[in-house]
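Good morning C.,

I know you're traveling, so I'll keep this short. The sequence:
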Amino acid sequence: MTSRPAERTGAVPARRVGRMLGTGALALALGVPTLAAATTARADGAPSGPAPAQPLTLVTLQGAGTAAGRADAPELLARQDAALAAIGAGEPVYRWTTALNGFAAPLTEEQVAVLDDQPGIAAIEADTVRPLAARPASAAVDGAAASPRLRGGAGVVIGVVDSGIAPQSPAFAVVPGLGADPQGFAGTCAEGEGWTAEDCTRKVVGARWFVDGFGADRVRSSEALSPLDVLGHGTQVSSVAAGNAGVSVRVDGRDAGRFGGVAPQARIAAYKACWGAPDPADDGCSTADVVSAVDAAVADGVDVLTLALAGGEGVDTLQRALLGAAEADVVVMGAAGSAADASYAAHASPWVTTVGAAVGRMSRGRITVPGGQSWTGGGRPVGVRGRAVRAQDAAAPGVPRRVAAQCRQGALDSRRVADRIVICRRGGIGRIDKSESVAQAGGRAMVLVNQRPGGVTADFHTVPTVHLAADAGRRLSRWVARHPAARLRMARVEGEPGTRRTAPWSAPGDPRGAALKPDAVADGDAVLGAVPDSLGRGWGVFSGSSAATAHASGLAALVLGEDPDRSAAVVRSLVVTSARPVPGSSSLEQGSGALPGRAPTAHLALDVDPAAWRRALRTHTLADLNTSSLLLSARQTTAVRRVTNIGRRAEYFSVTARGFTSHRVSVRPLAVRLAPGQSASFTVTVSGPRSPGRLDDGQLVWLGARGGVTRVPVALTR
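The tokens, ready to paste straight into the viewer:
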């Protein structure tokens, strides 16, 4: 039985596909996927019954949900009932009335065709399963990448739509110094397998679970039908964003330092919408479940909403739900995703802060062969020398070479592996399990090799290990095949582990989009976080834009904790414009740059009226919104933005344009004096060549008299 709901083919009408998003040349569909099977959501967030066998269709009605204050729930439900009655459909499995107006129901192709002709339908889409933006590992790096911060984020609730949470972790313990409790949060604690009402505390203030889109009968046997995290991903994301400060980290009986989340006093509300399948390749998050989680989180009153999962393409149902969250003044953070999974960064909508991954700070190891050739990757080996063997060349009797190549348990011949450096391929089993297999066979060390583009990590392995990218791993494997008797040397790279840069696997932005994406990048390179004890060690590292998004969400909580009255758009602006440029990366790869590790100190922000998002979407003017970045095509030579002094004192601000190589970019006025709360518009004018396909980029850097720096990235797609 497959764990992925079947995707409808031919059921989605083309009538609403192909509308333009903003002024870009890319048609961003206003209705593409359809929500998968689920049940009517109860008030506590738990499912009400078994999911239907037929995949769900997601239907969004025109207009906003109750969060935008334009209708009440009875009116929205009446409109949904009318649409269902017109096609002879029964009660849907999910209804949404807060972040958006819509429902998920198992519909036939004939019903979908009839529904498409009904007035008031905004989008129809088939449910799909979205992958998570990173994978956890039950290991820790060499020393906890601890946050020195002991305070920050008090009174703020971060809603995490992910694989749940493991509340028993010390990262989520109720400790002294949590600060003020949230005001206005109305979330519930849905019980289930391995989860009771007592698992919600002053730290984990709410928990719900949504499974009917994915299918309760399609989850792996070890899964818990409750908010309890089994995969580990949601626990890691939650701990990085808001884990307690000063938590001792111990791995295999060793002291690995202390851990702290970015906003240690913030609270977590877990919305489990991502599930493990019998085949890990099928793990993921049904769009129906995710949209239901977003709708519930907005109704509950979270302050920050983070989604570390693939974002889909265009303004689909999920993006419409996130639009409703932005209209409700929720700070929305989404992972950019991997370039291997999508051509461009996820969450192209300007009402979502899209976060990519930066690398270069993790512990690194180097493998050197006779003659001086070397390869560097993630790792922490110390002084290892010896002959190497490819795992496929050391298969135990009766074991296929492809199985041995992945260093699965019992697949290696100890006579060929003993005292060797074993080269293992990624896949099949966990990274840590591979090093354990090498150790059991008597291997001295391991080289872990990616099989396709992707990140490398610095896990806490059983034997010394270096993790190589795919290209470097292939070259090393070929060298070892030609020199089986040669002795290799593995060593930890001394000094600075490398220049910080945008991860090559982090998805870039679309040069033809309506908004510059990603908005920024943050550390996504072997980031330490808590994991469920069931995964073995209680702590693990994970890499990807999900780790980066967790960091950004924590920063947003810090900003809100300092001033709860700041609007979501101002918070997002302060976070994004506090980044520093990463050398060697374009603005379409890094946005404004790498986010800091502490709360922004600038007093200048670019605000957007919550009502402006939907109005700009309707009029195709998203590119004209007052966002904290500019993406200008050859047809555009001017743009206007507005800055606001959000400080408590009057202040002078001056601006310069930096980094452009082939265009002249001027800003008027060059300086403004703003009283607290006062705003001023500035005009950006571009002149220079219009070379098709050529990118020129830079930043507008605003300097405050009191020391703050605000960076607004500009991409010229000429």
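Safe travels,
E.
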